[in-house]
Specification:
Blueprint: H1 4-41, E1 52-61, E2 66-75, H2 80-96, E3 111-118, H3 128-136, E4 140-146, H4 148-153, H5 158-175, E5 179-186, E6 204-205
Parallel strand pairs: 4-5
Antiparallel strand pairs: 1-2, 3-4, 5-6
Helix pairs in contact: 2-5
Length: about 220
């Protein structure tokens, strides 16, 4: 004969089994629903890839302190700021290569951001007519934010530093003609020099970058 406490214990175990079964069934249904939602939200097509177009780079050459025009086919996005970052990234990748004519470590990752802003009037100019003309021409100021590691690892010397600065300015203008002025930041802050010589507190004119072929006469 089964004792009363055994009957009660058996009933409790059966009830617990039924409750656990219900919970497991509910969890199974929720997991199935999440799986279906994940399938519905998955992209139905591959993300669009930026079209490959020709980009013009002004590559520095330490041998004769020149800037040489080099054409590269790159996937360039439509957004101007993203496009600027891509072309500068390629330029700095060339400098970081083992056989570079202008060895500078860092590569594409050294460019943290590039911002494009309406170019202000020339510094120190009080001619309102000239300022208005410039503002309506759509001229832009590019602000290039570099990583601290790039500045820290850049070779020191007025010529090598200025070649880097001028090649960046010229490359931006060659691919984004509306960029007429360039400023530099390091880690989002104004830095006195690039590596002890090239002044980073000033605004550079893109037209100051001149190639040996005369791209910017």
């Amino acid at each position: 004969m089964i004792a009363r406490y055994q009957t009660i214990l058996f009933g409790v175990l059966v009830a617990a089994s039924v409750v656990m079964g219900g919970i497991l069934w509910h969890l199974r249904d929720r997991a199935h629903e999440r799986l279906l939602m994940g399938q519905d939200s998955a992209p139905t097509r591959a993300p669009e890839v930026a079209p490959a177009v020709q980009a013009t780079l002004l590559v520095a050459n330490d041998a004769d302190s020149s800037l040489i025009t080099e054409t590269q086919t790159l996937p360039l996005p439509q957004d101007s700021e993203s496009r600027a970052r891509v072309v500068l990234g390629k330029l700095l990748d060339i400098y970081a290569a083992p056989d570079s004519s202008h060895p500078v470590p860092g590569g594409a990752s050294a460019v943290a951001q590039v911002f494009l802003l309406p170019a202000p009037g020339s510094a120190g100019s009080a001619d309102a007519k000239q300022a208005d003309l410039k503002s309506t021409s759509g001229a832009e100021l590019a602000v290039v934010n570099l990583l601290p590691s790039f500045a820290a690892g850049h070779p020191s010397g007025i010529e090598t530093e200025m070649l880097t600065v001028e090649s960046i300015c010229g490359t931006l203008h060659a691919n984004l003609p509306r960029v007429t002025e360039v400023r530099f930041l390091v880690d989002g802050q104004v830095k006195a020099t690039l590596a002890g010589h090239a002044d980073l507190t000033r605004t550079y004119l893109a037209s100051e970058a001149i190639t040996t072929e005369g791209l910017h006469p």
